[in-house]
Design goal:
Blueprint (H helix, E strand, L loop, with lengths): L5 H71 L7 E5 L3 H11 L7 H6 L1 H11 L3 E9 L2 E8 L2 E7 L2 E6 L18 E3 L5 H11 L4 H6 E6 L8 E6 L4 E5 L3 H5 L2 H6 L5 E4 L5 E4 L17 H4 L2
Helix pairs in contact: 2-4
């Protein structure tokens, strides 16, 4: 059997320690190389990602600045500013009302007008009673508002002024000093809008011939009948009727007058009958002085 001496044992231990240190050193170097290789491989990818983010930010900034520049030019250029408004297919007074209702101002941005287009058209229809529809058209930096009006069925008298009555039963927003037309004049309806709407609805049920035969319509309510009306006809007769039954009974008027031997009154309140004027009261229908006016000629 062989036994090491103490000196030899110590030498063996030293050699083993040196080998262990050398092995640890090699392992550390190997790990260091591996880390360096890892970062070398990753660095290009990191640089590429950074460059992509940088490019995206640059493109976004360019887009923002481009939009701001274009928007500034749009709002600054004279070609994008409103310089004229024209209103078509209506009279002078209505044109003024339409322009006022549109709230358009000289040299305002046409872009802003585009965004308010529908609102402007609706406001005109709501504020101007005679307007049935309004359509805004663009031509360069000019605007044309095409107006379509409600048909006129007559005129309402108030304080010796006359207001157009539309098929809706509403009155025009302005008054005329005189009228010159075949439409009837409606009296005492100005402050009775509900009764006027009822009367206009009944009037429109009449045939064109009967409509043209009426000269005046007077609202004359009584304690017994709040719908009583009196009509002065162009043929010299008078008609007394009730608003709610006016159209249904007025259709008998031609037959009734054909059987009358002289001018008189046709009573349609209850039933339908006629009687002549007393001789001392025999008269022609009242006539309103109708002379052409500037506003009428422009209609």
């Amino acid at each position: 059997m062989f036994f090491f001496t103490n000196d030899k044992a110590k030498q063996a231990q030293k050699r083993a320690a040196k080998l262990q240190k050398a092995q640890l050193k090699r392992q550390k170097k190997l790990e260091k190389k591996e880390r360096q290789a890892f970062f070398k491989n990753r660095l290009p990818k990191t640089n590429q990602q950074h460059q992509k983010r940088l490019r995206r930010k640059t493109v976004s900034l360019l887009v923002v600045f481009t939009i701001i520049t274009i928007s500034s030019l749009i709002f600054i250029l004279p070609s994008t500013r409103l310089t004229a408004v024209r209103v078509k297919n209506c009279d002078y007074q209505t044109r003024k009302l339409v322009i006022k209702a549109s709230n358009l101002t000289y040299y305002e941005s046409l872009i802003g007008v585009h965004f308010r287009n529908n609102k402007i058209e609706q406001t005109i229809q709501n504020d101007v009673n005679s307007v049935k529809s309004a359509k805004i058209n663009y031509s360069g930096n000019h605007i044309t508002i095409d107006i379509k009006e409600h048909p006129v069925v007559g005129y309402a008298e108030h304080n010796k002024k006359f207001y157009k009555i539309m098929t809706t039963g509403k009155l025009a927003n302005y008054a005329l000093d005189n009228v010159n037309s075949h439409y009837p004049i409606f009296y005492n309806f100005y402050k009775k809008p509900q009764k006027l709407r009822m009367m206009v609805k009944e009037y429109q049920k009449l045939s064109p011939g009967l409509q043209q035969a009426i000269s005046e319509v007077h609202y004359e309510p009584s304690k017994i009948d709040h719908e009583k009306i009196k009509l002065y006809m162009n043929d010299g007769n008078e008609v007394i009727a009730k608003i709610s039954t006016f159209a249904s009974k007025m259709k008998y008027y031609p037959k009734i007058i054909s059987e009358m031997k002289q001018k008189g009154i046709v009573d349609l309140q209850v039933g339908a009958y006629s009687y002549p004027y007393p001789k001392k009261d025999e008269k022609e229908p009242k006539k309103v002085k109708k002379t052409p006016t500037k506003s009428e000629n422009n209609s």
